[in-house]
Amino acid sequence: MNEPITKIDPRFSDSDAVATSWDETRRVLETAEIFWISTVRADGRPHVTPLVAVWFDGAIYFCTGATEQKALNLRGNPHVILTTGCNHWDAGLDVVVEGDAVQLTDNDLLERLAEAWTTKWDGRWQYKVHNGVFQHEGSDTIPVFSVTPTKILAFAKGTFSHTRHQF
């Protein structure tokens, strides 16, 4: 992945704020335990739900049951926003990722991702790969999606700054 163009937006930042570095933003993406995904229903209404995901090789990867609302929404509209951060007003960093979700079917990549899930959560999330999807013990097939960011926003709190990482 290419390094993004990083700019602070002074309209929404404290006068003494500096742009959040790409390294700091990427660290939040790599270590986040929960993301919130926003998708669009067929009738145009938003749908928001939490999920676990991994940042891997410049993209966010997530999985969902084939009949879950977010999977149904993605069949009609691939545009998504994933957010992560904290619920503190005066400290922390919130990150918003915009892009399109693309379903993966490459077994080699899925094997690497299954290992990434296992590693990130100390074995609490373990998937097997079969015919281009994940399988979890006792579950049906689980499609896996990637989101390569088109834009990432980082909102620093305390000394407030609004940083845009454009790809």
From TrEMBL:
Coiled coil: none annotated. Keywords: Oxidoreductase. It comes from the Bacteria. Residues 23-152 form the Pyridoxamine 5'-phosphate oxidase N-terminal domain. Pfam families: PNPOx_N (PF01243). This is Pyridoxamine 5'-phosphate oxidase N-terminal domain-containing protein. The lineage of its organism: Bacteria, Bacillati, Chloroflexota, Ktedonobacteria, Ktedonobacterales.
